[in-house]
Amino acid sequence: MSPARSQHVQSRLQAVVDTAVDGVMVIDAFGAVLMFNPACERMFGYRAEDVLGQNVKMLMPEPYQSGHDAYLRNYRESGERKIIGIGREVLGRKKNGATFPMDLSVGEAFEDDRPIFVGIIRDLTERKAAEKALRESAERMRAVVETAVDGVILIDAFGNILMFNPACERLFGYKAREVIGHNVRMLMPSPYRDEHDAYIANYRKTGEAKIIGIGREVTALRKDGSTFPMDLSVGEAKQEGESIFVGVIHDLSARKRTEEQLAQAQKMETVGQLSGGIAHDFNNLLTVILGNAEALSIRLKAREDLRHLADNIANAAERGAQLTQRLLAFSRRQILQPTAIDCNALVENMQVLLRRTLREDIDLRVAVAPQPVFALADAAQLESALLNLALNAQDAMPKGGALTLTTEEIELDPDSLGPGVDVRAGRYVSVCVTDDGSGMDAETLARAFEPFFTTKEVGKGSGLGLSMVYGFAKQSNGQVTIYSEPGLGTSVRLYLPAADAEAEPTQQRQLDLPMAPRGKEAVLVVEDDAFVRSHVISSLESLGYRVMIASDGREALGMLQSGARPALLFTDVVMPGGINGWQLAEEARTLAPELKVLFTSGYPLESLTSRDQVDPNALMLTKPYRKAELARRVREALDEPD
Ligand SMILES: Nc1ncnc2c1ncn2[C@@H]1O[C@H](COP(=O)(O)OP(=O)(O)OP(=O)(O)O)[C@@H](O)[C@H]1O
Ligand SMILES: [Mg+2]
User: How far apart are CA 501 and CA 375, in angstroms?
Assistant: First the structure.
């Protein structure tokens, strides 16, 4: 090689070393630095003259620094190489003491027969930082997906499932490994399942999106074959040029259930108001029909053929009255006189009645709580509710079966009876009627409490039995639940607020007395309905009483203020004109303290001061009533001790 060419080679090599982005360093076999290029100066923060001739270990942090002499000695003595010709990731030490990761590759050469080592150094600081950032962001993403309450699912452009987070596992009942790699169709019920391939293909061809980027409510299929409503939003992303789709799934089951329950409650409320209003007007009409039919029947004593007709009218009116009574019960507008009821005793007493009423093939069993249980409710209505439930049970067991009545006392909190069944926290008495009959399917169960809902043939059922039970339970601040399995039987459970002890003995209602008691006292009748008024007047007069009349509370008070002194005030509870029966009675008693009072009503209105309940001591005559009952109650009221 000519000296000029050798000169050129030399200067080019120098250029390579000076301009290299990577550090280039040369050391001898004892570690003395022979070359330290500008890239090295930038990386380590030393100038070349600070380093040249020094031991290379100054560029290493501990413990490598202390180990390096021995390493080189070992190499010189045995030729054993650890790094030479290989390259690896090590730590460098800067002038300011800081360390940094670097990739070091070392080659071996000879100069004057002595080995020298060439190190090429690449600073890894930035790459390490980028890798760390990537790792952290991937970890954060994974944490979000793993812990998300909503389901996250990833599919490729062919519908194959790529990812299925733990929320999805909970929602669908599949483990991720059971679905990954399979087509997402498996999570859809028919007919969507069969349309999905065509949908994805069409989207790939035309870009026409039905759900991507939009989201909507769809139905999902669980592993066990059941379905649930979900809100699905789908986003599209690109991975190496191919579309992937990210679905986020929000379970709507709970919301749907609440919505349905709310709609059901609203429906019951509306139907209740409607039927309550109708029933109230009907009651007034029936009162008149019943009264007149009875009057006719008495006068037709001599005409057996005609009297029979009048009796038919009275019987039909009474049946009508029973129906309207159940409607009123459903709409929570019946008059309740709650007392502390010994439920064990009541159930045991009813056993006798039920044995007589029910068919022979019904095996009646009673299992009451070992200790006495007292509920605050209207005893007559509770009996009527239990009778209704027993009759339903009998109807559900056409071939006979077991009917069990049980009582127990339990503590409830608002969630005890499941979602949507609202109940105040506290102690309750549960009275339960269970049969092993036909049970109810889901549709029947959902509608069982609705008035006029019946599965029985025309003439067999009016569909008011459970409605009455429902209204009674609600109006008594209790609840009623049904548990039923088709083919296995039904259990209807009434919850009534527990009472502490027996406040007063429950009185048996006697309906008819052989002889209507009479009297001569003056009775002030306050009644807004003209028909009912005329009927009451004629009934009372025929019993011997002197009758004064007022059509509302104001008029009645006026009469008392101007000196009228009847022995009895017989007043409707619900009246127009701003003064209801309760208020009238109160004011009347301040004017005439010795005045006796008898109330009558078809129902108590919400507007009354004591909303659903009546002072249990108030004397009350429920419309419609027979003349005999009117006579008895009027006498009772007049004869009450002061
Ligand atoms: N114990 C039961 N077992 C099976 N089905 C029942 C039972 N109780 C009620 N049902 C179903 O609920 C429906 C409504 O009952 P509900 O007592 O309100 O009316 P009903 O018995 O049909 O008529 P009503 O009681 O007015 O004579 C019934 O027609 C029946 O389908
Ligand atoms: Mg029934």
Answer: 9
